[in-house]
TrEMBL record:
Entry keyword Flavoprotein: yes
Cross-referenced SUPFAM superfamilies: Flavoproteins
One Pfam family this sequence matches: FMN_red
One term of GO molecular function: oxidoreductase activity
Keyword flag Cytoplasm: no
Species this chain originates from: Natranaerovirga hydrolytica
Domain NADPH-dependent FMN reductase-like: start-end pairs: 4-121
Protein name: Multimeric flavodoxin WrbA
PANTHER family per the UniProt record, alphabetical: IRON-SULFUR FLAVOPROTEIN, NAD(P)H-DEPENDENT FMN-CONTAINING OXIDOREDUCTASE YWQN-RELATED
Protein keywords: Flavoprotein, FMN
Length: 179
């Protein structure tokens, strides 16, 4: 059965390593017959949440920028994959800011159930992703109907295209194809 898949690439680089993982995950999901959209944050305007909590009543953010539009896409997606470079052992600021701006989804009848993380880091150790996984898990825990279904750990990548010869690229494709 075809699913609606939304991939949010949070890399500040237009052609970064995590963006490459996002595209490979998308290719796998498309090859499996799913409806896939990639949203890249590198050229989006996303302000910080101002904690007004109006969204808890209206289910829309009072800040009308790209985060509001992306959150509405998230609302109807059945599967969401986040792609992020890991900075200082944590998800990048773009991803964290986007997650904070999903407050309008909390009281809604959201469709997403399955969450994936596609992460890249300069460090070789897989544990370099643990902070990003824990941070995303905190967000997931707020959405009772969701769970983290898979993580791709692209380690040892720093320069653009370092991911090209890493097993994480094939892992991203296979994970997307297995949706």
């Amino acid at each position: 059965m075809s699913k609606k898949v939304l991939i949010i690439s949070t890399s500040p680089r237009k052609v970064g390593n995590s963006q490459t993982l996002a595209k490979k995950f998308a290719k796998g999901a498309e090859d499996a017959g799913h409806n896939v959209e990639i949203v890249s944050l590198h050229d989006k305007t996303i302000g910080f949440c101002i904690s007004c909590f109006v969204c808890q009543k209206t289910q829309r953010c009072v800040i009308h920028d790209d985060a509001d539009i992306i959150a509405q896409k998230m609302l109807t997606a059945e599967v969401i994959a986040f792609a992020t470079p890991v900075y200082f052992y944590e998800m990048n600021g773009q991803m964290k800011t986007m997650l904070d701006r999903t407050n309008p989804l909390y009281p809604s009848d959201y469709a997403f159930r399955d969450i994936y993380l596609l992460a890249t880091a300069a460090e070789e150790e897989e544990s370099a992703m643990d902070g990003a996984i824990n941070g995303l898990q905190g967000w997931i825990d707020c959405f009772e109907k969701t769970s983290l279904k898979g993580v791709v750990r692209g380690t040892g990548v720093f320069e653009v295209d370092d991911i090209a010869n890493k097993p994480a690229l094939q892992e991203a494709y296979e994970l997307g194809k297995a949706l």
